[in-house]
Amino acid sequence: MFDIQTHMDFVGQAKAERWSRIIITLFGVIGLVYGAVVQQFSQTVYVLGVGFLISSLITIPPWPIYRKNPLKWQKPVNTEQKQLSGDSCDEGKKKKK
């Protein structure tokens, strides 16, 4: 029905974390200055809360900017051949004893 991507690559996670820290720090400083000017600590908390909401909206959803470096997975290894060759090695060790 909908093809909604739900993953974020490692580079995208680093970008999202950096953006989150920058936005929250910026709004924290702005809120602190604004709260000091109006002499209301509650205004500082409100501005910081708005920064948190904006940061969450920008960084939590897996936007396409966070999915530009997909992982290249290795091809699966056939484990049946390894088990067969491993069994023959065990039999050879038993015969030597």
Automatic annotation (TrEMBL):
Family: Belongs to the SPCS1 family.
GO cellular component: signal peptidase complex
Membrane topology recorded in Swiss-Prot or TrEMBL: Multi-pass membrane protein
Segments crossing the lipid bilayer: 21-39, 45-66
Source organism phylogeny: Eukaryota, Metazoa, Ecdysozoa, Arthropoda, Hexapoda
Short name of one Pfam family: SPC12
GO biological process, one term: signal peptide processing
Keyword annotations of the record: Endoplasmic reticulum, Membrane, Transmembrane, Transmembrane helix
Protein name: Signal peptidase complex subunit 1
Name of the gene: LOC111604262
Role of this protein: Component of the signal peptidase complex (SPC) which catalyzes the cleavage of N-terminal signal sequences from nascent proteins as they are translocated into the lumen of the endoplasmic reticulum. Dispensable for SPC enzymatic activity.
Location in or out of the cell: Endoplasmic reticulum membrane
